TrEMBL record, chains A, B, C, D:
Keywords: Flavoprotein, FMN, Oxidoreductase. Residues 1-349 form the FMN hydroxy acid dehydrogenase domain. The keyword Protein transport does not apply. Coiled coil: none annotated. The lineage of its organism: Eukaryota, Metazoa, Chordata, Craniata, Vertebrata. FMN binds at residues 77-79, 106, 128, 130, 156, 220, 242, 275-279, 298-299. One of its GO terms (molecular function) is FMN binding. This is (S)-2-hydroxy-acid oxidase. Belongs to the FMN-dependent alpha-hydroxy acid dehydrogenase family.
Amino acid sequence: MAMVCLSDFEAYAKKYLPKIAWDYFAAGADDCITRDENILAYKRIRFRPRMLRDVSVMDIRTKILGSEISFPVGIAPTGFHQLAWPDGEKSTARAARAMDTCYIASTYSTCTLEEISAAAPGGLRWFQLYIHRNRAASQQLVQRAEALGFQGLVLTADLPYTGKRRDDVRNGFRLPPHMKVKNLERAFEYGLPPNSLDPSVTWNDIYWLRSLTRLPIIIKGILTREDAELAVKHGVQGIIVSNHGGRQLDEGPATIDALVEVVEAVRGRVEVYVDGGIRKGSDVLKALALGAKCVFIGRPALWGLAYKGEKGLQDVLRILQDEFRLSMALAGCASVSEIGQHLVQFSRL
Amino acid sequence: MAMVCLSDFEAYAKKYLPKIAWDYFAAGADDCITRDENILAYKRIRFRPRMLRDVSVMDIRTKILGSEISFPVGIAPTGFHQLAWPDGEKSTARAARAMDTCYIASTYSTCTLEEISAAAPGGLRWFQLYIHRNRAASQQLVQRAEALGFQGLVLTADLPYTGKRRDDVRNGFRLPPHMKVKNLERAFEYGLPPNSLDPSVTWNDIYWLRSLTRLPIIIKGILTREDAELAVKHGVQGIIVSNHGGRQLDEGPATIDALVEVVEAVRGRVEVYVDGGIRKGSDVLKALALGAKCVFIGRPALWGLAYKGEKGLQDVLRILQDEFRLSMALAGCASVSEIGQHLVQFSRL
Amino acid sequence: MAMVCLSDFEAYAKKYLPKIAWDYFAAGADDCITRDENILAYKRIRFRPRMLRDVSVMDIRTKILGSEISFPVGIAPTGFHQLAWPDGEKSTARAARAMDTCYIASTYSTCTLEEISAAAPGGLRWFQLYIHRNRAASQQLVQRAEALGFQGLVLTADLPYTGKRRDDVRNGFRLPPHMKVKNLERAFEYGLPPNSLDPSVTWNDIYWLRSLTRLPIIIKGILTREDAELAVKHGVQGIIVSNHGGRQLDEGPATIDALVEVVEAVRGRVEVYVDGGIRKGSDVLKALALGAKCVFIGRPALWGLAYKGEKGLQDVLRILQDEFRLSMALAGCASVSEIGQHLVQFSRL
Amino acid sequence: MAMVCLSDFEAYAKKYLPKIAWDYFAAGADDCITRDENILAYKRIRFRPRMLRDVSVMDIRTKILGSEISFPVGIAPTGFHQLAWPDGEKSTARAARAMDTCYIASTYSTCTLEEISAAAPGGLRWFQLYIHRNRAASQQLVQRAEALGFQGLVLTADLPYTGKRRDDVRNGFRLPPHMKVKNLERAFEYGLPPNSLDPSVTWNDIYWLRSLTRLPIIIKGILTREDAELAVKHGVQGIIVSNHGGRQLDEGPATIDALVEVVEAVRGRVEVYVDGGIRKGSDVLKALALGAKCVFIGRPALWGLAYKGEKGLQDVLRILQDEFRLSMALAGCASVSEIGQHLVQFSRL
């Protein structure tokens, strides 16, 4: 089976992963409308490609928060990578380093931050944080991440409670006994309690985080201009426009649609990223044309892991990279700096 | 079979109810376009969820016409509950009381108002009225309802004649011999005559009703700003935006679309409710964001009854309640009073 | 099999007619887009129904060009009724008279005008004319129709050449040997030559027709405001907005959409009718709300004939009549004069 | 099997061509969205047909760059005709001449320009050029074409690199060993190297081409007003609005949509043509109504070749010609000069 595009990896993962793991990764909230809209919304955007521009030398590198990456696609934080591949997040870290891009490790990793760091020393990594009712646990995580050389702190803002994912309820989803949410073992000696996340978190907690670390703070889960304005006002360094892959509030906006509104509100004061629905290189080009500095992929990374671990994820990233470079060239852009809003329009449909 | 969402109850009811009963409950007029639009119209509305608001303490209670209910979902008037469950409307009344919400009992109940009252003393109930050519019969019903402690009178305005429901015609639908429209047995000693409803009813009959009872009058079936204005002018206390579940005039507006226009016309002078198409908790949130004080569910209540009578209907209400609470929290609202139009937008599609 | 709505007759006809006849009646030009759009366009129109209006006495009668009919639905001109039922147009004439409405007999009838007249003396009938290269033949037809008591002359304007109906080409459609285009046997002694219609007809030929007859002239096939203006200017008495059932130029407008533009241009100076896509009584209500004085049905009449001849067509008309009356009542109109544009709106979809 | 419309030829070709050849001709880039949109976009355009205009004498001839053709449909440049029919481009040239229209021969022909010229002396032909890194090779081609009597030079602007056509990757598409890109055998003695095209081509290369030949230069692949303006400014004689049949950048605009913008920008200064999505005669009429001087067909020509070589392609052209003439007549136009924007409108859908 030739792996030509990302949906080939999706088909593979659906076929070979245990159903309970596939369902967990694929799950969206309620009717999965937002999950699917994330993809469909890209298809409503049309390119306005320009011709006869010298595209013989292509430069697809970019920088996020000052760090150069090989192309504007990073790995979004997703949990439980051991469900996809035995080495779990260690493989993810190695693949990201090999491809010279950024990996956002999740609080809910099945490897410790230490294991992740050791697996791929020198790789560009950010750490994704949920704030627990047990604030000390969160504080420890932040400080471990900083000490280990993680270069950004990503606060997830859209999960005061977990969304209702029907298949997970039907399957009675839980981690197999041999996997653990290892990062939290210190804080929660007797296992992770239900409802451990703190639903009382507010914007003021950005100041608390700021007091804990010198890392740049990126807020993830913003979908409106109002919240984008608040994020800037509270001093974050970056915003990830995200709806948690459609796993939280169903029938919120597709992220690529929300990106437009957020970019407009932010007016360049902080970097804006987007995740959700990226399935081919031209989706990356659209996101950048609409103002994203970089995109992050979630499920496609898991499909890559499920295919062949570190190597499979590299395959996924390499395909995206080739497709992104080609779509840039065909749209008439030789470097990322030439990408702009003039390249796209919203279709009538 | 796990009952996770309302469509699980729908599937159960479709499988286990006699076809003639399922068809009767499911029926829409003509091509069933409005019946289906009631649901589809919700899917064209997108949330604009807000992040990092303290949602640790959630308050989902509300009041309708001064009475507090546990959450803004009541039971719409539908006929013939014995078709769904042997105890019929007695089970409905018990479930509504157990869940601390309002039940609008139909003129076409298969239990008497007295049986309904006795089944769940103290429950909040309104009575739904059709005006018969035999005005004395209607007058008796109103006065019985008031005497029994019903706290509102709901006048159905959209049924001068019964809509054409093709499946009912094909099935030759009629009640099984052991079921009766019991509330009308006194008035029509020899059975309910065909065409017993009065198609000459006009707005002036609101004054007649007013002369019969001190109960607040709620008018059900309003779909335009013009009629909303007339309703307010004629002194009703509430309006239920409804198209009778798409069972009367096919190709009228979806109720959630009509709600916007009615709310705008009413300008807060009376309470506005809506029924039709509610299938998950986030639909309730959308209706409230667009100005409804409360929603009422019709078919989902019948599916709950068909599943396990009183207990099944409680299951349905509890799922809606949990989903509504969760969607509020994920949209950034800790209490019903924080819900507003800023939470939603109509999608381009 | 219960015949509850018009699609029941369609299903019957499709099952029992010879394929070549079904295909001929069902045919649309090219991709059949306009044929299908005629129906779909009705579904994009939503009612704004009004409540609590006295609809106890319903009056659905109307007048076309001064003649009263029992309800605003007539029989559009279609050819070759013997393909549907042995008695052909004689049955059509009897059914129309029995239902007290207007029948537009086609030039391409398989019965003579004399046979049609004799079958249902006193019925309201108009005669549909194609102008032949042999002008004398057309002149004779007009004068025979007038002499036989036909009360209107309908000039078809949209067939300078026959549209390309792929199935007819594949089937090699031609009338069976025992059927004839009887009205033209006098003019064309040796059979109807191919290309007998005159593609050079222009607006000035209206004056020629006017010189031949005192009958009111109705022009059929108008789809634009420009042509509507020209029709009025050339002195016609009525306009039928029609695209020939989608059998001529594919991808022209749906007739109900074109009606709006034509009615606006005509400003009440002549009567405007519409055909194409009428499948239920509420479609008639929509057409009248948008300014049509009356609608004409084509294929549904043929399905009725195919079902049971004269009786089957009466069934079709009676169903439409009942549905029209009911939809009027449910929309809050007690008489045709109360129908207006306020009753409808175009849906967002 | 009767060949009634172009999709009959498509079905034939899909059935009888080797899968690898069918896939190559049918291929679109990535998700094939633009390939399919080229067709769908035509279906969103509605005619506004005019009636009672004398269409007894139809004139469908037109001129492109001064040369008269029998109707405004030419043959777009496509590669590898021997994959469709053994005689390859020789058959194409003969069919185009027989039908008195223009054939744009591709650089990637499987016959030499000399063979093509000899096959149909006197036919109107343009030559399509890719600019190779080996500029001398391109220069030789231009000069051979001019010497052989080709009357226009078509520069393809949208292929700095080849688009990603998944099926070709899966199939490992390559020409069978007995076929050759014959025009380039002189320049590349040891076979065509990969990446032989020059991705550094810019607008200034138009001046270089101009220095090589006196032929009119037509630029192919323009999709935006900005590039249309640049094309005029750099002195081309014509523009072909094209997205390479959806084979290059997926999710660019449908060509018929881009045509509107290009025609507006060009303001009649040069001739504008369009290719992509033409499947019936009325599509040609739409393109002309929106300002195209002529259209070119790609895949339908290949289907015709696959059916019966030269004769099959003539069949395709003759069907298009008949359909175009008929649709003109039914829209009320007797000659190409009467076609204008008033004939069309974009549908609400």
